[in-house]
């Protein structure tokens, strides 16, 4: 099965999103996906099996539980498939990043002038003109 076929299903994408946060038990994954998608526990198990068979997820026994984790290799293959198309959106994303940075700079408060503190002997902590040149 091609990586994009696996990722084409919203339930499997959600399972991968959950696994991106770290290892989860099948029960934890099932509770979330059943609540969000209204599917049965056996349906969740089938989606987990597809992810495991396609190499997107690994599982290991932990007592009576089965723990699932993400395997990034197939996701890298999917990202590689998108590479030829990246030129279509990357300049727009770069421009968006530039505009966001400009907006952050414009909202940044101006720098406060340094405070001069007088020492008990009447001198200040300002550098002398000789220090400023060095």
Keywords summarizing the entry:
134 residues, 3-stranded antiparallel β-sheet, 6 helices, 3 strands, elongated
Please, could you describe this protein's structure?
- The protein is mainly α.
- 61% of the residues lie in helices and 10% in strands.
- The protein is built from 6 helices and 3 strands.
- It has helices at residues 3-7, 10-20, 26-37, 41-53, 72-107, 129-133; strands at residues 24-25, 57-62, 65-70.
- A 3-stranded antiparallel beta sheet has the order 1-3-2.
- The model has no long low-confidence stretch (mean pLDDT 86).
In short:
The protein is mostly helical and 134 residues long. It is 61% helix and 10% strand.
Structural class: mainly alpha
Distance between the termini: 67 Å
Number of helices: 6
Strand order of the largest sheet: 1-3-2
DSSP strand tally: 3
Gyration radius, rounded: 27 Å
Give the assembly state of these chains: single chain
Q: Give the overall silhouette.
A: elongated
Spell out the helices and strands N to C: HHEHHEEHH
Round the mean pLDDT to the nearest integer and report it. 86
Low-confidence stretches at least 5 residues in length (pLDDT < 50)?
A: none
- Which strand-content bin applies to the residues? 5-15%
Helicity range: 55-70%
Main pleated sheet: 3 strands, antiparallel
């Amino acid at each position: 099965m091609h990586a994009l076929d696996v990722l084409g299903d919203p339930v499997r994408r959600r399972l991968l999103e959950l696994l991106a946060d770290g290892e989860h038990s099948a029960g934890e994954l099932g509770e979330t996906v059943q609540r969000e998608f209204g599917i049965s526990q056996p349906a969740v198990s089938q989606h987990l099996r597809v992810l495991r068979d396609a190499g997107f997820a690994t599982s290991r026994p932990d007592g009576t539980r089965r723990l699932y984790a993400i395997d990034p290799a197939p996701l890298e293959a999917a990202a590689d498939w998108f590479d030829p198309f990246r030129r279509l959106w990357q300049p727009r994303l770069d421009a968006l990043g530039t505009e966001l940075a400009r907006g952050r700079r414009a909202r940044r408060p101006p720098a406060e002038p340094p405070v001069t503190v007088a020492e008990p002997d009447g001198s200040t902590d300002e550098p002398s003109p000789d220090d400023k040149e060095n």
